[in-house]
């Protein structure tokens, strides 16, 4: 076995993915006006990034464009060498043991396909079976199962180029899972899919995690993916982690608020009740915000006793707002 | 066997374009006829040019037409897929497969070549036999040696096309280099004019360059110009270039991988 595994930090024992003080910089040549030569500049894509993922976790890895998500995933899969810090996946150094690691991980890119464009779908699967030397019985079992759940039975003989985006994505996910990977990285897996396909895909990923304890790491712009799948969220911005914890905690961290929408019988000046403040007034409708962890009951009671209320509703905090808030605070820092 | 599976699938993939295959055979045959009459005129003026007689010359023409697509002389073949995958960045996916890229694309290209041999190769050869009574290999040994030489021709051509496609790692697009390489291939393979007709030092140089493996060497084996140890030397020449060029492919790929993996992109 690898000596790296022996030197494994005992406090981190049991972690499947370990990232410590990870750093990656790129040299970028830039043309400077008025100068003949291009100047060299260092761009920091990822720095001081530390996190670890236990087997069976489903982690959402989110951040704005250019935050360093793809760079991190590339380092985790071994196709990019870190310039500093340490990465270990399943006890292996990804960039040094890339080929060995490929047998233990699966990767799905929403915008790139691992399938062979001109070949029938089934041919791609058969090539992968030989490539990963999947035992025939195991291959059959996995294939049958994924085909059934992902509803690919009718598409097996169709060349990949003729598949719809949703079918192709399901094909790609099957392709990534045939060799029973311990970790599945998904990069924007639901991009471009319709609502029904998205729902089905999320359902599948949940059952995969439940039945096989497959660890999922998901980068996405679709926060509904996160809400549907991940108990844990890592938010990255400007190359470093700005939040790592539960989804619920993210709401609290963001100082998120719930909103009480009040429809008054008549237009009125902004409502004045303790514990809530008016954010918006539009004719007889007013939006009051109050902290997520506070109870709505006393506020509702106070409003109802002091005003003529036609209707009331409460809006839960939107995770997108929370994250936007985190980003903007990160930018100020 | 993974690589056999890759080759059979490439074969199947190319076989889906039937109309293109027929059109290609037609084109090869038209060019074969034109070249045949031009060569016949040439050998009428000089009946022993380059050590060939008129029948050798016409046979050479039809072999050239038959080999043109089989060895993908103009460039292209499965290495075009590679160049495209480099351009789009999909090659990153190929890089973390537990299989070497050179072996993968070589298997694929051999599958393609097998299909092109059976169609674009046999088609024109048959017309050459029927219409121009071209020479056939004089012995079983020659026929077998020709088959080996043909495989080696595909391998050498593949390696050069792989190197051309790899330039996309640095240039993003292979097309400029591909055109240039195609021009070299047409001239130095003996496709345009047999290398045996090249005068003096140009002939000497042309006969040791890798492109001589494409058409000149297999054609001479077919025509029985190499016998005994000469036959082994001719095949050894092709093996030499195949090994050197494939090793270069591996080296270039390692550099390219380092560039992608270490420098990002």
Automatic annotation (TrEMBL), chain A:
Q: The organism's lineage?
A: Bacteria, Bacillati, Actinomycetota, Actinomycetes, Propionibacteriales
For biological process, the GO terms are:
response to antibiotic
Name the InterPro entries on file. Answer: AAA+_ATPase, ABC_transporter-like_ATP-bd, ABC_transporter_ATP-binding, P-loop_NTPase
Domain ABC transporter, residue spans: 17-263
State the UniProt keywords alphabetically: Antibiotic resistance, ATP-binding, Nucleotide-binding, Transport
Query: From the Swiss-Prot or TrEMBL record, what is one GO molecular function term?
Result: ATP hydrolysis activity
Q: Which organism is it from?
A: Nocardioides alpinus
Keyword Lipid metabolism carried by entry: no
Q: Which GO terms describe its cellular component?
A: plasma membrane
A Pfam cross-reference name: ABC_tran
Descriptive protein name:
ABC-2 type transport system ATP-binding protein
Q: Where in the cell is it found?
A: Cell membrane
UniProtKB/TrEMBL annotation, chain B:
The record lists the organism as: Nocardioides alpinus
The top of its lineage is: Bacteria, Bacillati, Actinomycetota, Actinomycetes, Propionibacteriales
Which UniProt keywords are given for this protein, alphabetically ordered? Membrane, Transmembrane, Transmembrane helix
Q: Which residues cross the membrane?
A: 20-40, 60-77, 117-136, 142-172, 184-209, 229-249
Asked whether the keyword Oxidoreductase is assigned, the reply is: no
The protein's name: ABC transporter permease
Coiled coil (residue ranges): none
